[in-house]
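Running this now, will post back.
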Amino acid sequence: MKAFLKNYRQSPRKVRLVAELVRGKNVPAAITELDFLAKRASLPLKKLLLSAVANAHQKGVEKENLLIKELRVDKGVTMKRMMPAAMGSGHKINKRTSHVTIILCPK
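Update: finished.
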């Protein structure tokens, strides 16, 4: 039971902070944790987790019997932009993205 989130527009470093909190937990506890977490990445990760649960439900596995086996946050593409600076110069800005993979397994 897998689900993927590609090109999520937040840096992997920030998304990994949320991923560390729910990795290894059972699904109902992880959903509760993500509901009350005050980080921007918590809502997309919750939606991704619910998508993986729906994929597992199609195979006949209930939500209460699932654990988060793997939650991996990888680096996605980096969009390179310029910010105007003094005396006609410019500074480079990297807008980073993340690829998130979640794998659930039965207890």
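Residues 81 and 93 are 5 Å apart (CA to CA). More later if anyone needs it.
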